[in-house]
Amino acid sequence: MDSVITIGITVLLVAATFVPYLVRYRRKEKAAAKRFEELKVAGLHAANTMHPHINASACIGCGGCVDACPEGDVLAVIGGKATLVHGAKCVGHGLCAEECPVGAITMLMAAPGRSADVPVLSESYETTQENIYIAGELGGMGLIKNAITQGKKVVDHIASKFGGGKPKYPVAVIGAGPAGLAAALTAKKHNLDYILLEQGDAGGTILQYPRRKIVMTSPVEIPLWGKLKFSEASKESLLEAWEAIIKETELQVHANEKVLDIERVNEHFRITSSKGSYEASAVVLALGRRGTPRKLGVPGEGQSKVMYRLIDTDSYQNFDLLVVGGGDSAIEAAVGLAIQGTNRVTLSYRKGEFSRIKDRNAKHLDEQVRKKTVTLMLHSNVREILPTEVVLETAGGEVRVPNQYVFIFAGGEMPFEFLKKIGIEFQQQVVQ
C-alpha cells in the first residue's frame, strides 16, 4: 500500500512539474508558428545573406540554436524542429551552428531549392583575378564583426606581398562600409598608400540598414583605434562611432565617387571612377551584396529615417510610416508593417495600378486597405521628405502625410554584372 502511495505521489510531482512546462512549450510553439505565417506575408521569412540551413532529419529540437541567436526571433522550434522563421533578420554570425550539439545547422547563402552566386575566393579572400580581393557582405559575411575581420586580413595579406609598390596607390579599396573602412585603416597602419572610394557616404551598407537596433555579438578591434565595444547599437550611434574613427585616424574617404571600371594594365590596375582615374597594385572590393538601391532624388532623402529595405516589422510600433513603390517588395513591406494594427501605413505608387505582383500580395493588400491599416495613394510621387512629414504630389494637389519612417522600394543596381565584367568568377551554392 505504501508503495502505491509513493508511486502516486511521484506521478503527481512529475506531472506538476512536466505539465506546466509542456503547456508553456506548446504555447510558445504556437506563437512561433503564428509569427512565421505573419513573416511569410511580409516576405521576411526568406534570408538575404548568409543564414542557417537546418537538417530536419538530424535536428533534435533542443532549442539551443534559438537561445544562442542574439537577434532574438530568427529561429524557433516548430513541430519539434528548429525552423528559420525570420530569415531577413539573420546577419550570418553562425552562433546557432556553433551551439547545435548534433551538427544539424550549416551556414549557407542560398535558400532550399535555390542557388546563390558566390564569388570563388582563396583562403586569403583573393578572387580568380590575381590581386583582386573581396571582403565583407559580398563574399557572404553579413555580420559587422566578420566584415571588419575580413577587411583587416585581406590587407595584412596584401602588405606581406607589396611592401610599397610603384603605383601611387598600392591598395585601392572600393566601398566604405565596415569591411572597406577596416581595410583602409589596415593599409594606413602598414604605411601603405591607399585610396578609399565610396559611391555614397562613408558607412556603406550601414546607411541602408533599416533596423533600429543593430546587434554586434562581441567587441571587435579596429586598426589604429582600438576596441569597438557595442553589444547593441542603433544605426545612428554606430555611424557616429565610425565618423569619430575616421576623424581621429585622419582616414581619407573619397565619398560620392562611383567606380565605373577596373582594368589590368601590365602589373597593376587602372580604376576609373566618376571623378578620375587611379592606379593600384591590389584592389579590395568591399561592396554590399544587396547592390545599390535606386533613390528618388528628392530633398530630405539623406535622413537616417529613410531606408531601402525592411528587415524587422516588430521594431516599428505605433508609427506613421510611408512605403514607396509598386512591386512585391513594397507591397509585402506595407502589409507587414500594417498587419499588427498599431502603425498607420501609407503606400505611395506613381502609377494608377499594380502590375506583375503576386496574387497573394494583392489579396493581402486589399485586406489591409479594407481594414484601413493601409492608406493607398496611387498616382502619387514623393516631392520632399521632412523630419516629421512627407510631401506627396497627387492628382488632387500637394498632400502632407505625417511620418516617422520612409521605406523606398524603387529597385536598384546589383554588383554581380560589374564583377563579372572585370573577370571575377562565381560558383553556385545550391541547397537541396
CATH topology of the largest domain: FAD/NAD(P)-binding domain
Low-pLDDT parts are 111-115
Task: Assign the CATH architecture of the largest domain.
Answer: 3-Layer(bba) Sandwich
User: What coarse outline follows from CA principal-axis ratios?
Assistant: globular
Can you give the helix content as a percent range? 25-40%
Strand proportion, as a percent range, falls in 25-35%
Number of helices: 10
The whole-angstrom Rg is 25 Å
The count of domains is 3
| N-to-C span | 59 Å
Q: Structural class of the helix and strand makeup?
A: alpha/beta
The name of the CATH superfamily of the largest domain reads FAD/NAD(P)-binding domain
Total beta-strand segments: 26
Q: Could you give a short account of the major beta sheet?
A: 6 strands, mixed
- Level-1 CATH class name of the largest domain: Alpha Beta
The pLDDT mean sits at 83
Write a concise synopsis of the structure shown.
The protein is an alpha/beta fold. The chain folds into 3 domains: 2-108, Alpha-Beta Plaits (2-Layer Sandwich), CATH 3.30.70.20; 117-291 and 414-430, FAD/NAD(P)-binding domain; 306-412, FAD/NAD(P)-binding domain (3-Layer(bba) Sandwich).
